[in-house]
Amino acid sequence: MDKQKDIEKSIKEILKNCEVKTLTVEMLKKWVYEESGPAMASVKNYQKKCLECFNKSKGKNINLFLNAIMDAWNYLPHGSLFGLSPYEAAMKNKIKIPSEHN
After folding, report:
1. Residues 6 or more apart whose Cβ sits within 8 Å of residue 99
2. Is residue 97 part of a domain?
3. Which are the contacts of 37, defined by CB distance < 8 A and separation ≥ 6?
4. Among candidates 92, 82, 78, which has minimal Cα distance to 4?
5. Res 102: pLDDT
6. pLDDT classification of 1: cutoffs 50, 70, 90
7. pLDDT above 90 for 57
8. Are the C-beta atoms of residues 53 and 68 closer than 8 Å to each other?
């Protein structure tokens, strides 16, 4: 949860620095949570919504903005993952590889 709060704080600051006034952390959280369907289609739809906000705001520093929205995607909860983020889901399902050394 601390990682999630750090990400939210960081995203809020980046949105401000990029001058994206038409997008909030709350909107990102909602969009991420509500996306459903095939993974690639979902992430493309999410990115499209975010970029529309960036363009409407005549935002600055697209690279920083894209990194922030992808952090949101990877670290915020998804409804389709039963409230886990992709990061949390990956860590939960982490498989231990047996050591080759006895």
Report:
1. none
2. no
3. none
4. 78
5. 46
6. low
7. no
8. no
Spell out the residues 6+ positions from residue 72 whose beta carbon is closer than 8 angstroms to its own: 7, 11, 25, 28, 29, 32
As a whole number of angstroms, the distance between CA 78 and CA 84 comes to 6
Q: What domain count does the chain have?
A: 1
Q: Which domain holds residue 80?
A: 2-92
Domain-embedded: residue 99: no
Residues 70, 87: Cα–Cα separation, whole Å: 12
When pLDDT is averaged across residues 14-38 and rounded to a whole number, the result is 94
On whether residue 35 sits in a domain, the answer given is yes
Residue 20 lies in a domain: yes
Average pLDDT of the chain, as a whole number: 89
